[in-house]
Amino acid sequence: MSAPQETLHLVGVGIGPANLSLAALLHGNDRVTKTFLDRKKTFEWHAGIMVPDAHMQVHFLKDLVTPVDPTNPFTFLAFAVEARRLYRLLITGRSRVPRREFEQYCRWAADRVDDVRFGVTVEGIQWDGSAFVVHTDDAPIRARNIVTGTGLVPQLPGCAQGHAPEQVFHASQLLDVPRDLSRRRVAVVGGGQSGAEIVHYLLGAEAGRPERIVWGSRRPNLFPLDDSPFVEEHYLPNYSRHFHGQPAARRDLLNEQQRMSSDGVSVDLLRAVYRRLYDLELLEGVERPCEVLVDHQLLRIDRERGGLLTTWRAGSGELVREQVDVVVCATGYRHGLPPVLDALRDRLPHPDELDVRADFSVTWDGPPENRIHVQNAARRHFGVADPNLSLLAWRSAVIANSLLGHRRYDVDAVSGAVTWSLAGERRPVGALGT
Fold this sequence. Notes:
Helix content is 24%, strand content 20%. By secondary structure, the protein is of the alpha/beta class. α1 crosses α11 (392-404) and α5 (193-203) runs parallel beside α9.
């Protein structure tokens, strides 16, 4: 008779920076039996859009662990020291490292952290009445708790769906296969960071620069990332807690108002694209290498002989048509229920709009001691910082404390210049004047 299968405390599904952060914070802790699974053979992070000159939009100290556990062995500084590059990094003066370097750091951590397994595909998760059963292509695993960190699902405009994938595809797939875009006409849809990175990459491809680029965005202009000091306090734990306590309608409004603190384009990148256009047109004599269409919404993509016909509607209502060969959609990602939880949909009160609690667990109809935690799936509940790396370590620490059942990490309010609410706060007499 075979021995009963062990029930782990935790199974993590997906090993991106989010679950890798949690694994690093739980590393060496024998009180939590755990495993983290990913179908990829090794750690990868946005490989399909890892263009050469892409840089992080956050400081390198906002890594997997440092903001909550600076003595942890998996800090970015520990990586830089072991790689014998810290001094040179400091000489560069960078606070925001290339994205490839952050991926190297994560891969270094993934090779050293306990209980991570690559090359295992999770096929679904069910509840058997006493534990979660994680079905994999290897063997089922039972767990008391689940944490998903599978990332967001790429989102295509309706008019971009149903076309040949080599002609119309999401930005996240740009580098998935070899593509020769030289002497071709390319439309890039989206005025955020990814769209700008792709345009900059295509303009710099000396041996394979497209014949022409059409860069279109619904935004009235190509707006910069707002990372000014007071706005940056949206990326402190204090604000995330405050945001979580607001009514749903208020949270939706705040997310829209604060969009450019998350979805804007780095100023340095905007300058680099502009300078590249200047050099190509005015120094090298290239006729209009990139048509920049702001305040234009892509309406249609029609097949025609020799390529594709894209139809855009300007803010004034006029229709603009551009012939292209390839359409790259830098149109973001869809938030909502992680696909791996589909089998549990009927156990969730609002599966299309998760109810995410303060410890990043979702409301479900099962036992309260068995939790389903979600990473990077709670922007509507925690604000613009949720999909951003700024609070990566803090969120993992909150989840770790919840799993451990005690305060292992300090996740309380930190020093900040902005007071988000005085309601319910007790202050010393005279603190507000007399």
